[in-house]
Specification:
Elements lengths: L3 E7 L66 H4 L11 H4 L25 E6 L11 E6 L3 E4 L5 H7 L7 E5 L5 H4 L2 H9 L8 E6 L2 H8 L8 E7 L20 E5 L4 E7 L6 H12 L37 E7 L9 H6 L6 H7 L4 E2 L6 E2 L1 H4 L8 E5 L4 H9 L23 E4 L3 H4 L2 H7 L6 E4 L13 H13 L12 H7 L2 H9 L1 H4 L1 E3 L5 E5 L5 E3 L9 H11 L3 H18 L13 E3 L23 H4 L8 H7 L1 E3 L11 E6 L13 E5 L5 E6 L3 H19 L1 E5 L11 H11 L8 E5 L1 H10 L7 E5 L5 H14 L13 H15 L19 H17 L2 E8 L7 E7 L2 E2 L5 E2 L3 E4 L7 H6 L5 E5 L7 H6 L5 H10 L4 E5 L19 E3 L4 E4 L6 H11 L13 H4 L1
Parallel strand pairs: 4-5, 5-6, 6-7, 13-14, 14-15, 15-16, 23-24, 24-25, 25-26, 31-32, 32-33, 33-34
Antiparallel strand pairs: 1-7, 2-3, 2-17, 3-4, 8-9, 9-10, 10-13, 11-12, 17-18, 19-20, 21-22, 21-35, 22-23, 27-28, 28-31, 29-30
Length: 1025
C-alpha cells in the first residue's frame, strides 16, 4: 500500500521588529537595561543589567546615524541616549530568547494560475558544488508560473543570489536522498523564504520515507514565519527508528505532483539486503587501487548504506534512513495536434468558444447536428510530451537495484523486440551519481536502453574544478590576491592536468567512450535543456558563464583603478622591509619585559614614495592616494612593540583562515561565519561552521587540501544556535567520517550550546556523524576550575594508565555549583541569560572534558575556554591559549592567546577574557551610526568592537561578521584602526605576520574606494523577489 506521510512544520513568526523602548522609570521590564558602571579609571564598557530599583538617568544622544535600511521604530533621542564611553545597552528580551511570537500561523501554499498550452519550460543545472565537489548539484525545472528544485545542497541560496534566481517562485523542493550532501542548504533556504514579504513564503519539500527526521532536526533554530509542508514517501521507518520496512513493497512509481503542466513521480532505489555487503567490498577494492584526489572517492561506500556484520556474520544488515535514493520522472502533457477548422465546420460547429474547448481536450455538442464532437475528430496527431529523468545512483548496490527494477521498463527502447509506438520516449536524463559509478560498463549499458535521450552527466566532473561557480566572490579574491598575496593566497585548486594524472585509467577511458553511443555531455553551470516550446527542444549552452581568468580580473582592476598597481608595489615593499627586520629584537626595560620592539616600525613609519615606489623624502603616499593616512605618533609607538609570545615565532605555529565573514545569510561576496585555525602538524580547529564551510575550505586549499584539513580537525566549536553559525557542521562531519572510515580514529569533539545537541542527535538518525558533543557550559572558566580541582583531588587514587573514576553525583554537584554561582540572582549574567538547565549526564561531561584536555594538549593548546556573551540564550565567545615554549637560551616564552567573540554586544566578560590577548576576532555587524539596530539585535558596531580590544590591551583586532548591507567592505573610521584589520573571505593571517597586518588596511580601502556602501543592484535576491 502506498504510504505518503505528510508533516507540517510551523515556524513561528516574528511579526514585529524589536524596537527601542524609552528609559522611563515606570517600565518594570525594560528592553534596554542599565547598570551602574564599576568604579575604575579609564573603563570604557560595562554591560547594562536590569534593575528596577535603580533610578534612570538622562544621557547625551548618540552620534548622528548614517544611511540605513532599519525598520526600527524611531523614538526620542533623549529617551534612547546613553554615555557611549561608559555604558552599552542591549536587548534583554532577545538575550533571553523572549523576542519571538510563538503563535503558529496557517500560511497557505501559493495558488498558481497555470498555462498548460503556451508555456516556457526547461531543466537547468544549478552548479552548486561543481567547482568544489562538496555537495550535489541542484536541478531547476522551470515553468512560467512554477519552479521545482531537485536537491538543495549547501550553497544553493548563495548561488541563487549570484545568478538572480528568484526564490519566491519556488513551489516544490525534491530530495534525491536525505543527507547532508543533498539537503545541507535547506535551513538557509527556509530562513530566506521566511523573510520574504510580511508573512514569509511557504514551500513543499519532498523526500523518501524518513524525511521527518530532517524536519525535526531543524526545529530548534528556524523560528521564522515560513510554514514548510513536508511530504515523505516510501517505506516508513520502524517504530524505534533504527531500521526501515521491507523496501521490496514499493516497486511502482509514486505520483507526487500531477497538475496541468507536469506529472512528477518517484521511483525508489534501495540497496538489496543480500548483495550489498559484497558489492561494497568490490567497490572498495576497485577504488583503493588508485589515489583519487576528489571527494567522490571518499563516498563510494557511504556508511549510511549498511551496517557491517559482526565477526560471526550473524548480524543482519540494517538500512539507515539516508540509504534510499530516488529516480524522479518528470512528464509534461502531450502537445495536442493542430486544430482543423474545416473538420469542425463539417461536424456542425460554429467558430467560437467551442473551438478553444476542443483544443483543451474537452468534448462539445455540435451546433447544427445532434452529435458530440470529440477532440480527436478535429485535431491532428498529438506529439508526446517531453520526459525528463533525474537519476541518483550513489553506490554499486544502488546500481544493482536500478538494473533490476521493472517500473522503468516502459521507458526502455529495445530496437529488436519492442514497438517504438508503445514506449514513452525519454528526451533527457540527468545523472547525479558519481563518475566512478556512471562510467562502469553496467551503467553505460543501462544508459543505452534510452535510445535518442540526451544524457547530462552531473556527477562531479573534472572539467568543472577550475571554473568558479561564484564568479563575484572569485573576482574579489583575485583582486585581493593581486594587491596582497601574503594575506590573500591564490585559490588552491589543482590543475586539470594533475587531476587527470591522478585518475585511474578505467575512469578516464570510460568518460571518453561513453560520449558516442549515449549522446552524453558533461554538465556545466546553468546548462539548459529546453522542453517547451517544442520547436526549441534540446540543449541550450548560451547561458553558461564564460571563464574568467585571474589575469583578466587584474587587467580589469588596473583599468578601473590605475593607482592600484603602485599600491601593490608599496605593499610588497612593506613586506620586504618587515622581513628584513623580523628577527631583530631590541632590548627593553624591566618594566616592558613582556614585550619586544619592532625596529622596522619604530620612529619614522615606513612611507614609500608613490612616484618612485621607493622609500624616501618625496611626495608622501597619502598625498597621491587620498584614502591613505600615516599613523599618529601614539599609534606608531603602539605598533613598534611586539608581544613576548611572538618572539622567534615560526610560520608553522598558527594561521587563521577566515572562511566566512558575513552575517545572517550568505551574499555574493561574503559567506556566513566560519574560522579555520590551522595548527599545521598539530592539527586544526573550526570556530563556527556556517553553511558552505566545506566549499570555502575547498576554494582555499583545493579539493585534496580541504580533505586533509577536514581529516586533521581536532575539534569544532560553535558559538550559538543561530543557523548562520552551524548549518555547515553536518557536511563537515559526514565527510570526515568517510575520509577516516578505514583508519583507526577517535570521534570528533563538537563543542556548542545545548540546543545544538538536539539538532545533531536528530540528524544522526539520517547519517552517522561520528562525533561526540560537549556543552559549552562545560568549558566556561568556573567549570574548568571545578574540573581541575576534581582531577587534583582524584590524582592520588589513580594509577598510571587507569581510567579516571568519579562519582557522578559529586561531580554533578560541582557543575551545578559553578552554574549556580554564574547565574545567581544579582550576578552580571543573571540579568540577560536565563539560567540553563544543568547538564543531564554529568559523569559523561567529565569524561568528555578529559578527552578535550588530551586533544588540546596534542594540539599544543593550554586551554579552550568558553565565555558567556550577550546575544541570545546560551551564546558564547571562546579563548584559545597556546602552551608556553622555550627559546634558544631556555627562557620561557608565553603562548599566544586568541579570542573570538561570536555574536555579542560589548560585555565585561569578553573584555576580561580578552585581557592581554594576541588576537581578538570580534564581530562588527553594524557601522557606528547604526547603534539602535546593534542594540536591538544584540550585535556590535565597528567602534565598539575596536574599543573592546583597546580596553583589554589586545595586540591585534580583526573585525568580522559584517551585515550584508556592506557586501564588499564595511564602513569604518580609519583613524581608529591602528591595531585593527577588516576581514575578508579567504583571508589567511599567519601568526608571524601580525605586525604588518594594520599597515595593509589603507590599501584594502583603496581597492574598494568606489564601493563603500551597498550597490542597489547587488541586493540579495530575497529582497527583490
Amino acid at each position: 500500500m502506498l504510504q505518503i506521510a505528510n508533516f507540517r512544520l510551523f515556524f513561528s513568526p516574528n511579526r514585529s521588529a524589536p524596537r527601542l523602548l524609552s528609559f522611563k522609570a515606570a517600565l518594570s521590564t525594560p528592553l534596554l537595561c542599565k547598570q551602574k558602571p564599576p568604579h575604575k579609571p579609564a573603563s570604557f564598557i560595562t554591560v547594562l543589567s536590569s534593575s528596577a530599583r535603580r533610578q534612570r538617568k538622562a544621557y547625551p544622544p548618540p552620534p548622528p546615524r548614517n544611511k540605513s535600511n532599519s525598520t526600527l521604530r524611531e523614538v526620542k533621542t533623549k529617551e534612547n541616549s546613553m554615555k557611549e564611553d561608559k555604558s552599552i545597552g542591549f536587548n534583554k528580551r532577545r538575550a533571553e530568547g523572549r523576542d519571538k511570537n510563538d503563535k503558529p500561523k496557517d500560511l497557505q501554499l501559493k495558488a498558481r494560475k497555470l498555462n498548460p498550452v503556451n508555456t516556457i519550460s526547461y531543466v537547468q543545472i544549478l552548479g552548486t558544488g561543481m567547482d568544489t565537489q562538496d555537495t550535489s548539484p541542484s536541478v531547476l525545472l522551470f515553468f512560467d508560473k512554477q519552479r521545482f528544485i531537485f536537491n538543495a545542497g549547501e550553497g544553493l541560496q548563495r548561488f541563487c543570489t549570484e545568478h538572480k534566481i528568484k526564490l519566491s517562485k519556488i513551489d516544490h523542493i525534491f530530495l534525491s536522498r536525505v543527507c547532508s550532501e543533498t539537503a545541507g542548504g535547506l535551513p538557509g533556504l527556509l530562513l530566506t523564504l521566511a523573510g520574504m514579504g510580511e508573512e514569509g513564503m511557504s514551500v513543499n519539500i519532498w523526500g523518501p520515507s524518513d524525511f521527518k527526521y530532517l524536519v525535526d532536526a531543524m526545529r530548534s533554530f528556524i523560528p521564522n514565519a515560513a510554514m514548510v509542508h513536508t511530504h515523505s514517501f516510501g517505506a516508513a521507518p520502524a517504530a524505534d527508528g533504527a531500521a526501515l520496512a521491507d523496501p521490496r513493497k514499493f516497486v511502482d512509481p509514486i505520483v507526487l505532483v500531477n497538475d496541468e503542466v507536469v506529472k512528477i513521480s518517484a521511483i525508489l532505489l534501495q540497496p538489496g539486503f543480500l548483495e550489498a555487503h559484497q558489492l561494497m567490498k568490490e567497490e572498495s577494492s576497485m577504488l583503493n587501487s588508485a589515489a583519487l584526489g576528489i571527494e567522490e572517492k571518499n563516498q563510494f561506500s557511504n556508511s549510511l548504506l549498511l551496517k557491517s556484520q559482526d565477526p560471526n556474520g550473524k548480524a543482519p544488515p540494517v538500512l539507515k534512513p539516508g540509504d534510499i535514493s530516488v529516480v524522479y520522472v518528470c512528464e509534461l502533457p502531450e502537445i495536442k495536434g493542430k486544430f482543423d477548422p474545416a473538420k469542425a465546420v463539417a461536424l456542425g460547429l460554429k467558430a467560437g468558444p467551442k473551438y478553444r474547448e476542443l483544443q483543451l481536450g474537452h468534448s462539445v455538442m455540435s451546433d447544427y447536428q445532434n452529435i458530440m464532437v470529440h477532440p480527436s475528430d478535429v485535431l491532428g496527431p498529438s506529439v508526446p510530451g517531453p520526459i525528463v529523468l533525474l537519476v541518483d545512483c550513489p553506490t554499486m548496490s544502488h546500481l544493482q537495484e536500478l538494473l533490476s527494477i521493472k517500473s522503468l521498463s516502459s521507458y526502455y527502447v529495445d530496437a529488436v523486440n519492442q514497438n517504438l509506438n508503445t514506449v514513452k520516449s525519454v528526451n533527457c536524463i540527468i545523472h547525479l551519481g558519481p563518475s566512478y559509478i556512471t562510467t562502469t560498463p553496467k551503467y553505460k549499458n543501462w544508459m543505452k536502453k534510452f535510445s535518442g535521450a540526451k544524457h547530462i552527466m552531473a556527477g562531479h566532473e573534472m572539467k568543472n574544478l577550475e571554473i568558479p561557480v561564484l564568479k563575484s566572490s572569485a573576482r574579489i579574491t583575485a583582486r585581493l590576491n593581486y594587491l596582497c598575496p601574503q594575506f590573500f593566497p591564490a585559490p588552491g585548486f589543482w590543475s586539470l592536468l594533475n587531476l587527470k594524472n591522478s585518475m585511474p585509467d578505467y575512469i578516464t577511458s570510460c568518460e571518453v567512450s561513453v560520449q558516442k553511443p549515449c549522446e552524453s555531455v558533461s554538465a556545466e553551470n546553468l546548462l539548459k535543456f529546453h522542453l517547451r516550446p517544442y520547436a526549441q527542444l534540446g540543449l541550450d549552452t548560451s547561458g553558461i558563464p564564460s571563464f574568467l581568468t585571474p589575469t583578466e580580473v587584474v587587467n580589469e582592476l588596473l583599468s578601473e583603478i590605475p593607482e592600484i598597481g603602485i599600491a601593490a608595489e608599496q605593499v610588497s615593499q612593506i613586506w620586504q622591509e618587515f622581513k628584513k627586520h623580523e628577527n631583530v629584537i631590541l632590548p627593553m626595560s624591566d618594566d616592558d619585559a613582556d614585550i619586544i620592539q619592532e625596529p622596522w616600525m619604530n620612529g619614522n613609519a615606513f612611507t614609500p614614495d608613490i612616484n618612485s615606489g621607493k622609500q624616501g623624502a618625496g611626495e608622501s603616499e597619502e598625498e597621491k592616494i587620498p584614502c591613505l593616512h600615516s599613523a599618529s605618533i601614539d599609534e606608531s609607538k603602539h605598533m613598534s612593540y611586539l608581544p613576548a609570545c611572538l618572539e622567534n615565532i615560526t610560520r608553522e605555529d598558527m594561521e587563521i583562515v577566515l572562511l566566512g565573514t558575513g552575517s545572517s545569510q550568505p551574499s555574493k561576496y561574503r559567506n556566513v561565519s566560519s574560522i579555520y585555525i590551522n595548527l599545521f602538524s598539530k592539527g586544526s580547529l573550526l570556530l563556527d561552521c556556517g553553511e558552505g564551510t566545506l566549499g570555502q575550505l575547498k576554494r582555499r586549499f583545493g579539493v585534496k587540501g580541504a580533505d586533509d584539513a577536514v581529516r586533521n580537525l581536532r575539534c569544532i566549536w560553535i558559538s550559538h544556535i543561530h543557523a548562520d553559525h552551524h548549518t555547515g557542521l553536518a557536511r563537515i562531519l559526514a565527510l570526515r567520517r568517510e575520509l577516516l572510515r578505514e583508519v583507526p580514529h577517535e570521534t570528533l569533539l563538537v563543542i556548542g550550546p545545548k540546543q545544538l545537541k538536539r539538532f545533531l542527535d536528530a540528524y544522526q538518525k539520517l547519517e552517522d556523524l561520528d562525533m561526540q558533543f560537549l556543552d559549552c557550559r562545560h568549558t566556561i572558566e568556573s567549570t574548568w576550575d571545578a574540573f581541575n580541582d576534581k582531577v587534583e583531588s582524584s590524582r592520588n587514587d589513580l594509577t598510571l594508565g587507569s581510567p579516571i573514576s568519579i562519582d557522578n553525583k559529586t561531580e554533578g554537584q560541582d557543575v551545578m555549583t559553578t552554574e549556580s554561582n554564574l547565574f545567581a540572582r544579582g550576578s552580571r549574567m543573571q540579568s540577560y541569560w536565563i539560567r540553563p538547565d544543568s547538564p543531564g549526564d554529568t559523569g559523561m561531561g567529565f569524561q568528555t572534558l578529559m578527552k578535550l584536555k588530551k586533544v588540546l594538549n596534542e594540539a599544543g593548546l593550554e586551554a579552550l575556554i568558553s565565555v558567556p556573551v550577550v546575544h541570545c540564550p546560551q551564546a558564547f565567545g571562546v579563548v584559545l591559549k597556546a602552551i608556553e615554549r622555550m627559546n634558544s637560551v631556555e627562557k620561557r616564552i608565553p603562548g599566544w592567546k586568541l579570542v573570538y567573540s561570536g555574536d555579542t554586544r560589548p560585555c565585561p566578560e569578553l573584555i576580561n577574557a580578552s585581557h592581554g590577548a594576541t588576537i581578538l576576532i570580534h564581530e562588527a555587524t553594524f557601522e557606528d551610526g547604526m547603534m539602535e539596530e546593534a542594540i536591538a539585535r544584540n550585535h556590535s558596531t565597528t567602534m565598539e568592537a575596536i574599543e573592546v580590544g583597546a580596553s583589554a590591551g589586545v595586540y591585534r583586532i580583526i573585525l568580522t561578521h559584517f551585515s550584508q548591507r556592506y557586501p564588499k567592505i564595511p564602513v569604518f573610521d580609519e583613524s581608529h584602526m591602528h591595531r585593527t584589520c577588516v576581514a575578508f573571505d579567504m583571508m589567511s593571517i599567519n601568526l608571524a605576520d601580525l605586525p604588518v597586518l594594520p599597515k595593509v588596511l589603507p590599501y584594502l580601502k583603496l581597492l574598494f574606494k568606489n564601493e563603500m556602501m551597498v550597490d542597489e543592484s547587488d541586493e540579495t535576491v530575497c529582497q527583490t523577489a
